[in-house]
Amino acid sequence: MKLLQNKRNIALCVVTVFIFLISWYSHAAVSVDYYPTKGWKVTAPEDQGIQSKSLLDMLENIQNNGYNIQSISIIRNGYLVMDSYVHPFAESQKHEMYSVTKSIISALIGIAIDKGYIKDVNQTLADLLPNRKISNLDVLKQAITLKDLLMMASGLNCNDSWERNWAGLFEMMKSNDWVQYTLDLPMEKTPGVWFDYCNGVSHLLSAAISEKTGMQTIEFATKYLFGPLGIVDIQWDTGPGGTNIGYGKLWLQPKDMAKFGLLYLNKGKWDNKQIISAEWIEASTRPYLDARLGGNKYGYQWWVNPAGYFAALGIYGQVIFVVPEKNLVAVFTGNIEGENMFVSSRLLKEYIIPASVSEKPISSDQEANVRLNKMIKTLAEAPSTGSIWMTENEGVAKDGLFKRTAIPSFTFDYPLGSTKAETASPAQVMRMKTPENVTFDAAVVKIPEGMELADFGTQYYTKGLQNVGSNIEVISNKEITLKCGSKAYRTDIKWLWSGSVLLNTILVSAYKDGYCIYMATHPMQNPENVAPIVQSLSFK
After folding, report:
1. What is the spatial distance between Cα 26 and Cα 41, in angstroms, rounded to a whole number?
2. What is the 8-class DSSP label of residue 61?
3. Alpha-helix residue ranges (DSSP H) falling in 152-308
4. pLDDT for 88-129, tens place per residue?
5. What's the structural domain count of the chain?
6. CA 180 to CA 175: how far, in whole Å?
7. Residue at 335 is within a domain
Protein backbone atom coordinates (compact mmCIF):
# COMPACT_ATOMS: atom_id res chain seq x y z
CA MET A 1 0.00 0.00 0.00
CA LYS A 2 2.83 2.36 0.91
CA LEU A 3 4.62 1.50 -2.35
CA LEU A 4 1.46 2.29 -4.32
CA GLN A 5 1.11 5.65 -2.57
CA ASN A 6 4.75 6.49 -3.35
CA LYS A 7 4.17 5.65 -7.00
CA ARG A 8 1.12 7.91 -7.03
CA ASN A 9 3.12 10.74 -5.46
CA ILE A 10 5.89 10.33 -8.05
CA ALA A 11 3.34 10.29 -10.86
CA LEU A 12 1.69 13.41 -9.47
CA CYS A 13 5.05 15.18 -9.32
CA VAL A 14 5.84 14.21 -12.92
CA VAL A 15 2.45 15.48 -14.13
CA THR A 16 2.88 18.71 -12.14
CA VAL A 17 6.32 19.32 -13.62
CA PHE A 18 5.01 18.52 -17.11
CA ILE A 19 2.15 20.99 -16.74
CA PHE A 20 4.56 23.63 -15.43
CA LEU A 21 6.90 23.13 -18.39
CA ILE A 22 4.02 23.33 -20.87
CA SER A 23 2.84 26.54 -19.20
CA TRP A 24 6.35 28.01 -19.12
CA TYR A 25 7.12 27.20 -22.73
CA SER A 26 3.81 28.72 -23.81
CA HIS A 27 5.17 32.03 -22.51
CA ALA A 28 8.78 31.33 -23.46
CA ALA A 29 10.74 32.78 -26.34
CA VAL A 30 8.43 33.23 -29.31
CA SER A 31 9.27 31.94 -32.75
CA VAL A 32 10.19 34.79 -35.10
CA ASP A 33 11.34 34.81 -38.70
CA TYR A 34 13.49 37.94 -38.35
CA TYR A 35 14.87 40.37 -35.75
CA PRO A 36 14.55 44.15 -36.23
CA THR A 37 18.24 44.83 -35.58
CA LYS A 38 18.52 46.95 -38.71
CA GLY A 39 14.90 48.05 -38.84
CA TRP A 40 11.32 46.97 -38.27
CA LYS A 41 9.20 45.09 -40.78
CA VAL A 42 5.81 46.78 -41.07
CA THR A 43 2.47 45.09 -41.69
CA ALA A 44 -1.18 46.08 -41.50
CA PRO A 45 -2.69 45.38 -38.06
CA GLU A 46 -5.01 42.71 -39.49
CA ASP A 47 -2.01 40.76 -40.82
CA GLN A 48 -1.06 40.19 -37.18
CA GLY A 49 -4.57 39.55 -35.89
CA ILE A 50 -5.24 43.12 -34.68
CA GLN A 51 -8.31 45.18 -35.57
CA SER A 52 -7.46 48.55 -37.15
CA LYS A 53 -10.81 49.95 -36.02
CA SER A 54 -9.88 49.57 -32.35
CA LEU A 55 -6.56 51.37 -32.87
CA LEU A 56 -8.37 54.14 -34.75
CA ASP A 57 -10.86 54.48 -31.90
CA MET A 58 -7.93 54.76 -29.47
CA LEU A 59 -6.32 57.63 -31.40
CA GLU A 60 -9.66 59.42 -31.58
CA ASN A 61 -10.13 58.97 -27.84
CA ILE A 62 -6.68 60.45 -27.22
CA GLN A 63 -7.41 63.48 -29.38
CA ASN A 64 -10.89 64.04 -27.97
CA ASN A 65 -9.53 64.05 -24.42
CA GLY A 66 -6.42 66.10 -25.22
CA TYR A 67 -3.95 63.62 -23.75
CA ASN A 68 -0.44 64.85 -24.55
CA ILE A 69 0.79 61.50 -25.89
CA GLN A 70 3.64 62.11 -28.31
CA SER A 71 4.15 58.66 -29.81
CA ILE A 72 2.70 55.15 -29.84
CA SER A 73 4.48 52.11 -31.30
CA ILE A 74 2.76 48.72 -31.28
CA ILE A 75 4.54 45.44 -32.04
CA ARG A 76 2.68 42.17 -32.61
CA ASN A 77 4.41 38.90 -33.44
CA GLY A 78 7.62 40.91 -33.92
CA TYR A 79 6.10 43.19 -36.59
CA LEU A 80 5.40 46.91 -36.34
CA VAL A 81 1.64 47.30 -36.82
CA MET A 82 1.26 50.94 -35.72
CA ASP A 83 3.79 53.76 -35.37
CA SER A 84 2.24 57.13 -34.60
CA TYR A 85 3.93 60.46 -33.79
CA VAL A 86 2.27 63.71 -32.81
CA HIS A 87 3.72 66.95 -34.16
CA PRO A 88 6.14 68.42 -33.21
CA PHE A 89 7.62 65.15 -31.92
CA ALA A 90 9.18 63.40 -34.92
CA GLU A 91 9.83 59.77 -35.80
CA SER A 92 13.62 60.15 -35.80
CA GLN A 93 13.69 62.00 -32.48
CA LYS A 94 14.93 60.57 -29.19
CA HIS A 95 12.67 60.84 -26.16
CA GLU A 96 13.72 61.06 -22.55
CA MET A 97 12.58 57.83 -20.91
CA TYR A 98 12.71 59.03 -17.30
CA SER A 99 12.28 55.99 -15.01
CA VAL A 100 12.01 53.55 -17.90
CA THR A 101 15.79 53.83 -17.52
CA LYS A 102 15.51 51.75 -14.34
CA SER A 103 14.38 48.71 -16.34
CA ILE A 104 17.39 49.15 -18.64
CA ILE A 105 19.57 49.18 -15.53
CA SER A 106 17.90 45.96 -14.38
CA ALA A 107 18.74 44.31 -17.71
CA LEU A 108 22.37 45.42 -17.40
CA ILE A 109 22.60 43.97 -13.90
CA GLY A 110 21.30 40.68 -15.31
CA ILE A 111 23.89 40.73 -18.09
CA ALA A 112 26.65 41.52 -15.58
CA ILE A 113 25.58 38.48 -13.53
CA ASP A 114 25.37 36.30 -16.65
CA LYS A 115 28.91 37.26 -17.59
CA GLY A 116 30.35 36.81 -14.10
CA TYR A 117 31.09 40.44 -13.29
CA ILE A 118 28.61 40.24 -10.40
CA LYS A 119 28.24 36.99 -8.47
CA ASP A 120 24.48 36.96 -7.79
CA VAL A 121 21.64 38.99 -6.28
CA ASN A 122 22.72 38.04 -2.77
CA GLN A 123 25.87 40.17 -2.90
CA THR A 124 25.79 42.91 -0.30
CA LEU A 125 25.79 46.62 -1.00
CA ALA A 126 29.22 46.95 0.61
CA ASP A 127 30.61 44.22 -1.67
CA LEU A 128 29.15 45.87 -4.78
CA LEU A 129 30.95 49.14 -3.99
CA PRO A 130 34.01 48.03 -1.99
CA ASN A 131 35.98 51.24 -2.59
CA ARG A 132 33.39 53.41 -0.86
CA LYS A 133 33.37 54.29 2.83
CA ILE A 134 29.78 54.05 3.99
CA SER A 135 28.45 56.09 6.90
CA ASN A 136 25.75 54.83 9.27
CA LEU A 137 26.91 51.27 8.55
CA ASP A 138 24.78 49.53 11.14
CA VAL A 139 23.64 45.90 11.10
CA LEU A 140 20.66 46.67 8.87
CA LYS A 141 22.71 48.51 6.27
CA GLN A 142 25.31 45.75 6.23
CA ALA A 143 22.49 43.34 5.33
CA ILE A 144 21.35 45.22 2.19
CA THR A 145 21.71 42.97 -0.87
CA LEU A 146 21.58 43.55 -4.60
CA LYS A 147 18.15 41.93 -4.61
CA ASP A 148 16.93 44.46 -2.04
CA LEU A 149 18.13 47.30 -4.26
CA LEU A 150 16.49 45.83 -7.36
CA MET A 151 13.16 45.41 -5.54
CA MET A 152 13.21 48.98 -4.19
CA ALA A 153 13.35 47.50 -0.71
CA SER A 154 16.71 48.83 0.51
CA GLY A 155 15.34 50.05 3.83
CA LEU A 156 17.25 53.33 3.37
CA ASN A 157 15.51 56.51 4.46
CA CYS A 158 15.38 57.94 0.92
CA ASN A 159 12.26 60.10 1.37
CA ASP A 160 12.16 59.96 -2.40
CA SER A 161 8.92 58.54 -3.79
CA TRP A 162 6.07 60.25 -5.63
CA GLU A 163 4.19 59.97 -2.32
CA ARG A 164 6.78 62.36 -0.84
CA ASN A 165 7.06 64.64 -3.90
CA TRP A 166 10.59 63.34 -4.59
CA ALA A 167 12.01 65.48 -1.80
CA GLY A 168 14.91 63.08 -1.28
CA LEU A 169 15.79 63.12 -4.98
CA PHE A 170 16.13 66.89 -5.00
CA GLU A 171 18.23 66.76 -1.83
CA MET A 172 20.50 64.19 -3.47
CA MET A 173 20.85 66.36 -6.59
CA LYS A 174 22.10 69.24 -4.48
CA SER A 175 25.04 67.13 -3.31
CA ASN A 176 28.29 66.83 -5.27
CA ASP A 177 28.39 63.00 -5.03
CA TRP A 178 25.04 61.28 -5.55
CA VAL A 179 26.43 57.81 -4.96
CA GLN A 180 27.96 58.76 -1.62
CA TYR A 181 24.89 60.72 -0.59
CA THR A 182 22.68 57.66 -1.07
CA LEU A 183 25.14 55.27 0.57
CA ASP A 184 25.30 57.49 3.65
CA LEU A 185 21.53 57.68 4.20
CA PRO A 186 20.37 56.28 7.54
CA MET A 187 18.28 53.14 7.65
CA GLU A 188 14.52 53.37 8.12
CA LYS A 189 13.31 49.78 7.70
CA THR A 190 14.56 46.21 7.50
CA PRO A 191 15.93 45.51 3.98
CA GLY A 192 13.93 43.30 1.63
CA VAL A 193 10.59 43.70 3.37
CA TRP A 194 8.96 46.98 2.39
CA PHE A 195 8.70 48.59 -1.08
CA ASP A 196 9.93 52.18 -0.92
CA TYR A 197 10.62 53.85 -4.27
CA CYS A 198 14.07 55.46 -4.35
CA ASN A 199 15.82 57.03 -7.34
CA GLY A 200 19.11 57.08 -5.50
CA VAL A 201 19.03 53.29 -5.18
CA SER A 202 18.78 52.94 -8.98
CA HIS A 203 21.78 55.26 -9.25
CA LEU A 204 23.67 52.93 -6.91
CA LEU A 205 22.93 50.09 -9.35
CA SER A 206 24.53 52.07 -12.17
CA ALA A 207 27.55 52.76 -9.96
CA ALA A 208 27.78 49.03 -9.16
CA ILE A 209 27.80 48.17 -12.88
CA SER A 210 30.69 50.57 -13.45
CA GLU A 211 32.56 49.35 -10.37
CA LYS A 212 32.26 45.66 -11.20
CA THR A 213 32.81 45.83 -14.98
CA GLY A 214 35.44 48.56 -15.12
CA MET A 215 33.35 50.34 -17.78
CA GLN A 216 30.99 53.28 -17.74
CA THR A 217 27.42 52.03 -17.67
CA ILE A 218 26.79 53.38 -21.19
CA GLU A 219 29.91 51.57 -22.46
CA PHE A 220 28.78 48.30 -20.92
CA ALA A 221 25.26 48.83 -22.31
CA THR A 222 26.53 49.63 -25.79
CA LYS A 223 28.72 46.53 -25.87
CA TYR A 224 26.29 43.99 -24.48
CA LEU A 225 22.75 45.40 -24.94
CA PHE A 226 22.33 48.37 -27.27
CA GLY A 227 24.90 47.19 -29.80
CA PRO A 228 23.45 43.70 -30.34
CA LEU A 229 19.95 45.21 -30.69
CA GLY A 230 21.11 47.73 -33.29
CA ILE A 231 20.42 50.72 -31.04
CA VAL A 232 22.90 53.48 -31.92
CA ASP A 233 21.09 56.79 -31.28
CA ILE A 234 21.67 57.12 -27.53
CA GLN A 235 22.05 59.93 -25.02
CA TRP A 236 22.66 59.14 -21.37
CA ASP A 237 23.57 61.89 -18.92
CA THR A 238 25.93 61.44 -15.99
CA GLY A 239 25.78 62.68 -12.44
CA PRO A 240 28.66 64.23 -10.51
CA GLY A 241 31.65 61.91 -10.76
CA GLY A 242 30.74 60.60 -14.20
CA THR A 243 28.34 57.76 -13.33
CA ASN A 244 25.53 57.40 -15.87
CA ILE A 245 22.34 58.31 -14.07
CA GLY A 246 20.66 55.09 -12.98
CA TYR A 247 17.16 56.45 -12.45
CA GLY A 248 16.67 58.45 -15.67
CA LYS A 249 18.17 60.89 -18.16
CA LEU A 250 18.45 58.23 -20.87
CA TRP A 251 17.14 59.15 -24.32
CA LEU A 252 16.16 56.58 -26.96
CA GLN A 253 13.93 56.60 -30.01
CA PRO A 254 10.52 55.00 -29.36
CA LYS A 255 11.16 52.19 -31.85
CA ASP A 256 14.40 51.41 -30.02
CA MET A 257 12.43 51.28 -26.77
CA ALA A 258 10.24 48.73 -28.56
CA LYS A 259 13.34 46.64 -29.39
CA PHE A 260 14.09 46.44 -25.68
CA GLY A 261 10.51 45.36 -25.02
CA LEU A 262 10.72 42.71 -27.73
CA LEU A 263 13.94 41.37 -26.20
CA TYR A 264 12.08 40.76 -22.94
CA LEU A 265 9.06 39.32 -24.75
CA ASN A 266 11.44 36.88 -26.44
CA LYS A 267 13.00 35.81 -23.13
CA GLY A 268 16.30 37.60 -23.79
CA LYS A 269 16.99 36.05 -27.19
CA TRP A 270 18.02 38.16 -30.19
CA ASP A 271 19.44 37.13 -33.58
CA ASN A 272 19.67 33.58 -32.26
CA LYS A 273 21.90 34.73 -29.40
CA GLN A 274 20.98 34.87 -25.72
CA ILE A 275 21.56 38.56 -24.85
CA ILE A 276 20.09 38.14 -21.37
CA SER A 277 19.46 34.77 -19.75
CA ALA A 278 15.84 33.60 -19.76
CA GLU A 279 16.23 32.97 -16.04
CA TRP A 280 17.00 36.66 -15.43
CA ILE A 281 14.04 37.78 -17.55
CA GLU A 282 11.75 35.54 -15.51
CA ALA A 283 13.24 36.57 -12.17
CA SER A 284 13.22 40.30 -12.89
CA THR A 285 9.58 40.39 -14.06
CA ARG A 286 8.23 38.28 -11.19
CA PRO A 287 5.99 40.09 -8.66
CA TYR A 288 7.77 40.45 -5.31
CA LEU A 289 6.33 43.36 -3.37
CA ASP A 290 3.15 45.46 -3.41
CA ALA A 291 4.09 48.68 -5.21
CA ARG A 292 1.03 50.64 -4.04
CA LEU A 293 0.39 52.01 -7.54
CA GLY A 294 -2.70 50.91 -9.44
CA GLY A 295 -2.62 47.37 -8.06
CA ASN A 296 0.84 46.74 -9.50
CA LYS A 297 3.54 44.63 -7.88
CA TYR A 298 7.24 45.30 -8.29
CA GLY A 299 9.94 43.04 -9.72
CA TYR A 300 13.55 43.97 -10.35
CA GLN A 301 13.01 47.60 -11.47
CA TRP A 302 9.95 46.43 -13.46
CA TRP A 303 6.26 46.93 -12.69
CA VAL A 304 4.21 43.73 -12.78
CA ASN A 305 0.46 43.85 -13.41
CA PRO A 306 -1.85 41.15 -12.05
CA ALA A 307 -3.41 40.85 -15.52
CA GLY A 308 -0.29 39.03 -16.70
CA TYR A 309 1.86 41.72 -18.31
CA PHE A 310 4.77 43.81 -17.09
CA ALA A 311 5.94 47.33 -17.83
CA ALA A 312 8.81 49.79 -17.65
CA LEU A 313 7.29 53.07 -16.44
CA GLY A 314 8.53 56.66 -16.51
CA ILE A 315 6.95 59.89 -15.35
CA TYR A 316 4.91 61.99 -17.81
CA GLY A 317 3.65 58.90 -19.61
CA GLN A 318 6.70 56.95 -20.82
CA VAL A 319 5.90 53.24 -20.90
CA ILE A 320 7.07 49.98 -22.44
CA PHE A 321 4.32 47.36 -22.03
CA VAL A 322 5.22 43.69 -22.57
CA VAL A 323 2.17 41.41 -22.90
CA PRO A 324 3.34 37.79 -23.31
CA GLU A 325 -0.15 36.33 -23.63
CA LYS A 326 -0.79 38.45 -26.73
CA ASN A 327 2.80 38.34 -28.05
CA LEU A 328 2.62 42.13 -27.89
CA VAL A 329 4.80 45.14 -27.09
CA ALA A 330 3.35 48.65 -26.84
CA VAL A 331 5.45 51.79 -26.33
CA PHE A 332 4.06 55.18 -25.31
CA THR A 333 5.93 58.46 -24.90
CA GLY A 334 4.40 61.74 -23.83
CA ASN A 335 4.40 64.84 -21.71
CA ILE A 336 1.35 64.22 -19.55
CA GLU A 337 1.04 65.81 -16.15
CA GLY A 338 -1.49 65.18 -13.40
CA GLU A 339 -4.01 62.38 -12.98
CA ASN A 340 -3.86 61.25 -16.62
CA MET A 341 -0.10 60.61 -16.52
CA PHE A 342 -0.52 56.85 -17.04
CA VAL A 343 -3.66 56.88 -19.14
CA SER A 344 -1.75 54.49 -21.41
CA SER A 345 -2.62 51.65 -19.01
CA ARG A 346 -6.30 52.23 -19.69
CA LEU A 347 -5.68 52.52 -23.43
CA LEU A 348 -3.80 49.22 -23.38
CA LYS A 349 -6.62 47.45 -21.54
CA GLU A 350 -9.54 49.03 -23.43
CA TYR A 351 -8.19 49.20 -26.97
CA ILE A 352 -4.89 47.45 -27.71
CA ILE A 353 -5.35 44.13 -25.90
CA PRO A 354 -9.00 43.70 -27.02
CA ALA A 355 -7.92 44.56 -30.59
CA SER A 356 -5.59 41.52 -30.56
CA VAL A 357 -8.33 39.05 -31.43
CA SER A 358 -6.36 36.30 -33.19
CA GLU A 359 -2.90 34.78 -33.36
CA LYS A 360 -3.37 34.49 -37.12
CA PRO A 361 -4.20 37.09 -39.80
CA ILE A 362 -7.81 38.28 -39.90
CA SER A 363 -9.91 39.76 -42.68
CA SER A 364 -8.76 43.18 -43.80
CA ASP A 365 -10.81 46.19 -42.74
CA GLN A 366 -9.78 48.43 -45.61
CA GLU A 367 -11.90 51.42 -44.59
CA ALA A 368 -10.63 51.45 -41.00
CA ASN A 369 -7.06 50.89 -42.17
CA VAL A 370 -7.24 53.83 -44.59
CA ARG A 371 -8.69 56.09 -41.88
CA LEU A 372 -6.07 54.93 -39.38
CA ASN A 373 -3.18 55.68 -41.73
CA LYS A 374 -4.68 59.05 -42.63
CA MET A 375 -5.00 60.02 -38.97
CA ILE A 376 -1.42 58.92 -38.24
CA LYS A 377 -0.21 61.07 -41.15
CA THR A 378 -2.27 64.06 -40.00
CA LEU A 379 -1.01 63.82 -36.41
CA ALA A 380 2.59 63.74 -37.63
CA GLU A 381 2.26 66.75 -39.94
CA ALA A 382 -0.34 69.10 -38.51
CA PRO A 383 0.51 71.21 -35.47
CA SER A 384 -2.30 71.75 -32.98
CA THR A 385 -2.87 74.43 -30.37
CA GLY A 386 -2.52 71.72 -27.75
CA SER A 387 1.07 70.95 -28.67
CA ILE A 388 2.44 74.25 -29.95
CA TRP A 389 1.81 78.03 -29.87
CA MET A 390 -0.36 79.12 -32.79
CA THR A 391 -1.91 82.57 -32.09
CA GLU A 392 -0.83 86.03 -33.15
CA ASN A 393 -1.00 87.54 -29.65
CA GLU A 394 1.00 84.79 -28.03
CA GLY A 395 3.01 83.91 -31.11
CA VAL A 396 3.45 81.16 -33.65
CA ALA A 397 6.03 78.41 -33.21
CA LYS A 398 7.00 76.67 -36.43
CA ASP A 399 10.07 74.78 -37.63
CA GLY A 400 12.29 76.01 -34.80
CA LEU A 401 11.34 79.71 -35.03
CA PHE A 402 8.96 81.49 -32.65
CA LYS A 403 7.46 84.68 -34.07
CA ARG A 404 5.20 87.16 -32.28
CA THR A 405 3.66 89.87 -34.44
CA ALA A 406 1.60 91.59 -31.71
CA ILE A 407 3.23 94.68 -30.19
CA PRO A 408 5.93 94.40 -29.01
CA SER A 409 6.97 91.91 -31.68
CA PHE A 410 9.95 89.61 -31.40
CA THR A 411 11.38 86.29 -32.56
CA PHE A 412 13.67 83.63 -31.18
CA ASP A 413 14.97 80.19 -32.11
CA TYR A 414 14.05 77.03 -30.23
CA PRO A 415 15.06 73.33 -30.49
CA LEU A 416 12.97 71.23 -32.85
CA GLY A 417 10.65 68.92 -30.93
CA SER A 418 9.97 71.44 -28.17
CA THR A 419 6.36 71.42 -26.99
CA LYS A 420 3.90 73.87 -25.54
CA ALA A 421 3.64 74.26 -21.76
CA GLU A 422 1.12 76.19 -19.69
CA THR A 423 2.16 79.70 -18.74
CA ALA A 424 3.09 80.18 -15.10
CA SER A 425 2.58 83.96 -14.67
CA PRO A 426 0.39 86.70 -16.18
CA ALA A 427 3.39 88.35 -17.83
CA GLN A 428 4.34 85.28 -19.87
CA VAL A 429 3.08 85.25 -23.45
CA MET A 430 4.43 81.75 -24.06
CA ARG A 431 6.19 78.88 -22.33
CA MET A 432 7.68 75.70 -23.81
CA LYS A 433 9.70 72.60 -22.91
CA THR A 434 12.71 71.37 -24.85
CA PRO A 435 12.93 67.67 -25.77
CA GLU A 436 15.16 67.40 -22.67
CA ASN A 437 12.26 68.79 -20.58
CA VAL A 438 13.92 72.13 -19.78
CA THR A 439 11.40 74.96 -19.70
CA PHE A 440 11.88 78.33 -21.35
CA ASP A 441 9.49 81.25 -21.57
CA ALA A 442 9.05 84.75 -22.97
CA ALA A 443 7.30 87.55 -21.09
CA VAL A 444 6.34 91.18 -21.67
CA VAL A 445 5.85 93.90 -19.03
CA LYS A 446 5.77 97.69 -19.04
CA ILE A 447 9.21 99.05 -18.23
CA PRO A 448 9.23 99.59 -14.46
CA GLU A 449 9.34 103.33 -13.74
CA GLY A 450 12.88 104.66 -13.40
CA MET A 451 14.51 101.23 -13.77
CA GLU A 452 17.61 100.95 -15.90
CA LEU A 453 17.90 97.85 -18.11
CA ALA A 454 21.04 96.83 -16.21
CA ASP A 455 18.98 96.51 -13.03
CA PHE A 456 15.96 94.69 -14.44
CA GLY A 457 17.27 91.15 -13.88
CA THR A 458 18.96 91.79 -10.54
CA GLN A 459 16.07 93.73 -9.00
CA TYR A 460 12.71 93.28 -10.76
CA TYR A 461 13.07 89.64 -11.81
CA THR A 462 14.69 88.38 -8.61
CA LYS A 463 11.93 90.05 -6.60
CA GLY A 464 9.40 87.98 -8.54
CA LEU A 465 11.38 84.80 -7.84
CA GLN A 466 10.94 85.39 -4.12
CA ASN A 467 7.27 84.43 -4.53
CA VAL A 468 8.13 80.90 -5.67
CA GLY A 469 11.64 80.26 -4.38
CA SER A 470 14.40 80.99 -1.91
CA ASN A 471 18.20 81.18 -1.61
CA ILE A 472 18.28 83.48 -4.64
CA GLU A 473 21.82 84.33 -5.73
CA VAL A 474 22.80 86.45 -8.75
CA ILE A 475 25.88 84.81 -10.25
CA SER A 476 26.51 87.35 -13.02
CA ASN A 477 24.87 90.27 -14.80
CA LYS A 478 26.42 91.48 -18.04
CA GLU A 479 25.54 93.46 -21.14
CA ILE A 480 25.20 91.49 -24.39
CA THR A 481 24.26 92.36 -27.96
CA LEU A 482 21.37 90.49 -29.57
CA LYS A 483 21.75 89.25 -33.16
CA CYS A 484 19.51 92.13 -34.30
CA GLY A 485 22.01 94.60 -32.80
CA SER A 486 19.87 95.61 -29.81
CA LYS A 487 21.41 95.96 -26.36
CA ALA A 488 20.31 93.44 -23.76
CA TYR A 489 21.43 92.04 -20.41
CA ARG A 490 22.09 88.43 -19.47
CA THR A 491 21.53 87.66 -15.80
CA ASP A 492 22.51 84.27 -14.35
CA ILE A 493 20.74 83.29 -11.13
CA LYS A 494 20.89 80.26 -8.83
CA TRP A 495 17.92 79.61 -6.58
CA LEU A 496 15.78 76.96 -4.90
CA TRP A 497 12.30 76.36 -6.26
CA SER A 498 9.80 75.16 -3.63
CA GLY A 499 12.63 75.14 -1.11
CA SER A 500 14.36 72.07 -2.54
CA VAL A 501 14.90 72.09 -6.33
CA LEU A 502 18.12 73.84 -7.37
CA LEU A 503 17.66 75.74 -10.64
CA ASN A 504 20.10 77.71 -12.79
CA THR A 505 18.11 80.48 -14.44
CA ILE A 506 19.46 82.38 -17.44
CA LEU A 507 17.55 85.60 -18.07
CA VAL A 508 17.91 87.78 -21.16
CA SER A 509 16.10 91.13 -20.97
CA ALA A 510 15.79 94.02 -23.43
CA TYR A 511 13.75 97.26 -23.68
CA LYS A 512 11.61 98.13 -26.71
CA ASP A 513 8.70 100.53 -27.31
CA GLY A 514 8.11 101.12 -23.59
CA TYR A 515 8.15 97.39 -22.78
CA CYS A 516 10.65 95.00 -21.33
CA ILE A 517 10.77 91.75 -23.27
CA TYR A 518 12.54 89.05 -21.33
CA MET A 519 13.26 85.39 -21.85
CA ALA A 520 14.26 82.87 -19.23
CA THR A 521 15.24 79.22 -19.06
CA HIS A 522 15.58 77.18 -15.89
CA PRO A 523 17.76 74.04 -16.17
CA MET A 524 18.82 72.06 -13.13
CA GLN A 525 22.15 71.26 -14.80
CA ASN A 526 24.29 72.37 -17.75
CA PRO A 527 22.75 75.84 -18.26
CA GLU A 528 24.98 76.66 -21.23
CA ASN A 529 23.28 73.90 -23.23
CA VAL A 530 20.07 75.95 -23.36
CA ALA A 531 21.55 79.46 -23.21
CA PRO A 532 21.36 79.83 -27.04
CA ILE A 533 17.54 79.77 -26.84
CA VAL A 534 17.16 82.91 -24.75
CA GLN A 535 20.14 84.61 -26.38
CA SER A 536 18.51 84.22 -29.83
CA LEU A 537 15.90 86.87 -28.91
CA SER A 538 15.60 89.32 -31.81
CA PHE A 539 13.45 92.30 -32.82
CA LYS A 540 13.86 91.83 -36.58
Report:
1. 24
2. H
3. 167-173, 178-183, 199-213, 217-221, 227-229, 254-265, 278-284
4. 899 999 999 999 999 999 999 999 999 999 999 999 999 999
5. 3
6. 9
7. yes
